[in-house]
Every structure is written in structure tokens, then in C-alpha cells.
Amino acid sequence: MDPKDIVDNIKEKFGDMFYVGPKGVIGIDIGLSAIKFAEVSLQSDGNYKINRYASVDLPEGTIIEDEIQKEDEILQALQQGIKELNSPNKFACIGISGPNTLIKKLQLAGGTPEEIEDQVTWETEQYLPFPIDEGNLSFSVVSENQGGGINVIIGAAKKTVIDSFKSTVERANLKVKIVDLNASATINVFEAVMGDEVKQKDKTWILMDIGAQKTHFMIYKGGVLAFFKEVNIGGLTITEEIQRQMGVNYKEAESLKISGDGSGNIPEEIMDLINQVLDSFFNELKKTIDFWVNSTSEESFDGCVLTGGSALIPGLPEALQELFETEVQILNPFSTMAYNQSNISEDMINEIAFKGVCAIGLAMRSLPK
Ligand SMILES: Nc1ncnc2c1ncn2[C@@H]1O[C@H](COP(=O)(O)OP(=O)(O)OP(=O)(O)O)[C@@H](O)[C@H]1O
Ligand SMILES: [Mg+2]
Predict the structure, then answer these.
(1) What is the dihedral of CA 259, 235, 17, 138, to 10 degrees?
(2) Are 208 and 304 in contact (CB under 8 A)?
(3) Could you tell me the distance, in angstroms and rounded to a whole number, from the CA of residue 22 to the centre of ligand 1?
(4) 65, 355, 358, best to mutate for ligand 1 pocket (most atoms within 8 Å of CB)
(5) What's the CA-to-centroid distance between 308 and ligand 2, angstroms?
(6) CATH numbers and ranges of domains, the chain
(7) Cα–chain-centroid distance for residue 72?
(8) What is the pLDDT of residues 272-294, one digit of tens each?
(9) What's the pLDDT tens digit per position in 129-180?
(10) What ligand is nearest to the CA atom of residue 307?
(11) CB of 211 closer than 6 A to ligand 1?
């Protein structure tokens, strides 16, 4: 198929990779450590409300990067989560990420819609790790640039990855209406929660989703995503180090990392291992920041916002504050979003605030902004 035809077939709005249905959708984030489910509605005051939430832990190694390794285990977790969520909704928006996806801001010469599509196809081809006709691609023109051209954000994913996630979720009797990029879902929540503070033209923010197998590092500038990088370090890197060094299994290592000796104290030897991994994490982040500074000559940030379960690593926000030389805060969806108190208990709030952001963003995808 001619790459141009692929672009011709897609809608121009970023994120509308596929069909957006009229009804709300259940946002499903299949992460390495757990599958999270969220249902969100838009209230008459313009604020979002989290109506339902569920999370089901996944056993070790069910997915590696964007490849499903143990489909039956994922199916089981999906079925359990759908039951716990107890929603009458049968439509889903699922998120994907990993090496066979791409989200990127491009500077193009601009021109007629046909010329722009040609430029998008040509440029995207150079960044995609797979042939363009094996992927789905969407883009949106976000602004004009100083040289008289345009800035465009592209999103792309390999069809086989989309299909494998989609068919697994559909085996659990849901209809997948939207497939989105996880990073784009996180940005949705970031924009809804932070509002005007981050959207101003001269503001530059760092947004990070620190998960289990990877970290999404994003720079958000002047109200749009300006830079994205997937760093292959996350909470799992620490867990695996604990497994190796302490001779324990995955579950025991997770528990040592999160609960320590059982009374909430993390033993010193575990803290040493955590710090070892953090050292290489910070090196990676430092290189990424240097790359940004070198290519834009912009050295300062207006703030940094964290999400993801590994943002709970003791001392991490403070250490990042020092590294980025800007204030670091946790993205708290509850600061602007209401929630249904009969479905969501107080003790789920913390879990949702850290680990549920991507699922919430996916659930927001069919709602007007
Ligand atoms: N209190 C805690 N202290 C340290 N790490 C924690 C804590 N709670 C959770 N984590 C870690 O957070 C990670 C899970 O976070 P999250 O749910 O955001 O990841 P995920 O979405 O499953 O992974 P990914 O996005 O990389 O596929 C795990 O590595 C877990 O060990
Ligand atoms: Mg995640």
C-alpha cells in the first residue's frame, strides 16, 4: 500500500488513531505490573469525575516491552478486573507503548494538506522502527514555527502490536473502540489537572511516568508535547537487582522494595541497591536533558510532574528536583477530578493517584475536552 494512502485514510486529529465512538469507554492500561481499568465522565461544571476504578496485578513476565508473552494470564486478569469494575459499559480504549510505537514532534515546511501529508510520511518513515505500511499513523498540526513552517505531532504504532492487544482485550468480551498511545493518555490527565499553569506559551515542563519496565520522559512546552523519550529503566530494574543480589523471587523482591522489613522500614542493603539503579537512571536522564538543552539552548524548566508507581520510591522526587533544578510534584488527578465515593474507597485513592493516571487518560479519550 502506498504510504500516502495510509495517511489519507486517517483522521487529522492526533490520538484519533482509530474510531472514536459516541459513548464513554473503559480506559484499560496493561502495564507490566498490573492492568488498570478506569471509567470517567465529564460533569456539567466541565470537570471530570472518576466513576469506577480497578487494578489487577499481573504475574511476572506476562509482557515484555510491547509483546504479550502470556496471553492467558492477561486474559484472566482482564476478566477479573472487568468483574471488579462492574461497569455496564462494554466499550474500551486501550493504551499501547514500547519500541514499536512512536510519538514525536516534527518541524515541517508546511503547504497544502497534500504537501503536509507527504512531508509527514517522509519524515515519519525515518523514525519508525518498522516499514510505514506495517503501521497506523496519525498526526495533528499544533502550531506554526518561526521559520514559516508548521509543527506537527505524530503518533504511530505497528499494526501487529495494536492487533495483539486489541484481540486479547476482545477475548474478554469488550469491544475496543480506541487504541491510543499511553503517553498521550498521560498528557491528557496532565493537561486536565494542571490547566493553564502548564499551557502558557513561554512555559516548559517535564512530565514523567515512572512505571515498572520503563519511564516515559516528556517535555511539554507552550501547551504541546515538545519531546518524548522512553527510557528503559523503571521499578522492575530495581526488583530484578534485588532478586539477583538477594536470591529471592520476583514477589519477594517487590515486597522487600515496597514494604521493606514488614514494618515499613527499607533495610540498608535494599536502599543501596535502589540507589545503584537510581544512579544509572539519573545518568540516562542527564544525557536526555543535555540533548534537549543542546538542541534548543533552553536550560531551565518551570516545573516537573511525576506519575507512575515508581514515583513512590523513597527520596526520588527530591533527587529529581536536584537533578532538574526545578520543583518536582506528583500529578494528583484528585486535585481537579471528583470521584464516585460509593465505587471508590478512600484506601484506593493513593493507588489511583500514582498508578491510575494512564487508565484515567485513556478513559477520557471519548469525552469532549
Ligand atoms: N511504594 C513503592 N515504592 C517503590 N516502588 C513502588 C511502590 N509502589 C509501587 N512501586 C513500583 O511501581 C511499579 C508499578 O508502577 P506502575 O503501575 O506505574 O507500572 P506499570 O504501568 O505496571 O509498568 P509499565 O508502565 O512500565 O509497563 C512497580 O515496579 C512497583 O514495584
Ligand atoms: Mg505504566
Answers:
(1) 150
(2) yes
(3) 33
(4) 355
(5) 6
(6) 3-195+336-366 (3.30.420.40), 197-331 (3.30.420.40)
(7) 24
(8) 999 999 999 999 999 999 999 99
(9) 999 999 999 999 998 888 889 999 999 999 999 999 999 999 999 999 999 9
(10) 1
(11) yes
pLDDT the model gives residue 20 = 43
Q: How far apart are CA 11 and CA 19, in angstroms?
A: 9
Which tens digits make up the pLDDT trace of 69-95?
A: 999 999 999 999 999 999 999 999 999
Long-range contacts of 289-295 (CB under 8 A, 24+ apart): 289/323, 289/324, 292/219, 292/227
pLDDT at site 23:
55
CB proximity list for 212: less than 8 A, separation 6 or greater: 31, 32, 33, 234, 235, 236, 239, 309, 310
Q: In angstroms, what is the span from residue 274 Cα to ligand 1's centroid?
A: 13
Nearest CA to ligand 1 atom 14: 309
Q: What are the tens digits of pLDDT across the range 173-196?
A: 999 999 999 999 999 999 999 999
Partner residues linked to 104 by β-bridges: 154
- Position 19 pLDDT exceeds 60: no
pLDDT tens by residue, 46-76: 899 999 999 999 999 999 999 999 999 999 9
pLDDT of amino acid 145: 85
The answer, yes or no, to whether any atom of ligand 1 lies below 6 A from the CB of 177, is no
Residue nearest ligand 1's atom 21 by CA: 31
Cβ of 235 closer than 6 Å to ligand 1, yes or no, is yes
- pTM of the entire predicted model: 0.93
Query: How remote is the CA of residue 33 from the centroid of ligand 1, in Å?
Result: 7
For residues 180 and 338, give the distance between their C-alpha atoms in angstroms, rounded to a whole number: 24
* Residue 95 Cβ contacting ligand 1 at under 6 Å: no
**Mutate which of 210, 312, 348, 357 for ligand 1 pocket (most atoms within 8 A of beta carbon):** 312
> 285-293: which pairs have CB atoms within 8 A and are 24 or more residues apart?
285/217, 285/231, 285/320, 285/323, 286/323, 288/217, 288/229, 288/231, 289/323, 289/324, 292/219, 292/227
pLDDT at position 280 is 97
Cβ(216) to ligand 1 under 6 A? no
